[in-house]
Design a protein that fits this description.
- The protein has 268 residues and is α/β, with parallel strands linked by helices.
- It has one domain: Glycerol-3-phosphate (1)-acyltransferase (3-Layer(aba) Sandwich), CATH 3.40.1130.
- 45% of the residues lie in helices and 11% in strands.
Length: 268
């Protein structure tokens, strides 16, 4: 049995290494056309951004098809029943794995988010993120938070979905980090629904403790479902909204992260 488990882990490492190698070889063939498309419709940034987001979604969906077919990680966006509210909304999610951003984007079919300054300011990456109307996240300067909120509200008022990971970074395996308040403040300022997604990977892979080349023997499966939809108007302010939603996530986590819950969007 141990020999079989070692073989499975070895084969997963090989498949992961092949996947990374293929990405490094093929990435320029995707980035160059994407960069050129950023030059289109310069007089209509919203039209350009929506087109670039659709291109990104196709790329992320292909990546997840490959990961599933090559038995690295199973995630199928078609299995997720989102049932999003009509119009723009803020989508939040816990952050257990490195694949969460691409999984959320593939499922939403488009949307924007704010990106860490260290990534957004990279010379080759920043212009492409800006072309899709992603924007720079807050820095250490407290004044930057107001800028981020204003930009996010502007995106929502243009009709986009905004997705945020309130933990700010990948959470330790099996537990949640404290939630930041910015995503909840954005929902309150814009007056749009807040959709809570629950993500769970079993066995855990691509977490902080389980990197790419140290995968488990079993076939990891990333699951996603809607935990609840909250209306900001039901809360007094963004702090109350954050406390309610964070408590719901912690209850889900304490219950062993079950795949389906029936939380309602009414006050807890």
């Amino acid at each position: 049995m141990r020999g079989l488990l070692r073989l499975q882990r070895f084969l997963r490492r090989v498949r992961a290494a092949i996947t990374v190698g293929g990405y490094l070889v093929l990435a320029p063939f995707g980035y160059v056309p994407f960069a050129l498309l950023c030059l289109c419709w310069r007089g209509d940034p919203l039209r350009r951004a929506l087109f670039l987001q659709r291109c990104s979604v196709r790329g992320f969906r292909f990546a997840h098809l490959w990961l599933r077919w090559f038995r690295v990680v199973h995630f199928d966006w078609r299995e997720v029943r989102l049932q999003l509210p009509n119009g723009p909304c803020v989508v939040i999610a816990n952050h257990p794995t490195l694949l969460d951003p691409t999984a959320v984007m593939a499922t939403l079919g488009g949307g924007c988010t704010f990106v860490k300054s260290a990534v957004y300011r990279r010379r080759l990456v920043g212009p492409m993120l800006a072309g899709a109307l992603h924007f720079e996240g807050p820095s250490r300067d407290p004044m930057s938070i107001g800028r981020v909120i204003d930009e996010a509200v502007q995106r929502l008022r243009s009709g986009m979905h905004l997705f945020v990971f309130p933990e700010g970074t990948r959470s330790p395996e099996g537990r949640l980090l404290p939630f930041g308040r910015i995503g909840f403040e954005i929902a309150c300022r814009a007056g749009v629904p807040l959709v809570s997604l629950a993500l769970h990977c079993e066995p855990c892979y691509l977490s902080r403790e389980t990197p790419l080349l140290r995968g488990p023997a079993g076939f990891p499966r990333l699951r996603m479902h809607v935990l609840a939809i909250d209306e900001p108007g039901d809360c007094g302010d963004s702090r109350e909204l954050k406390d309610r939603v964070e408590a719901r996530y912690r209850s889900w986590d304490a219950d062993g992260r079950p795949p389906r819950l029936s939380f309602l969007a009414s006050p807890d």
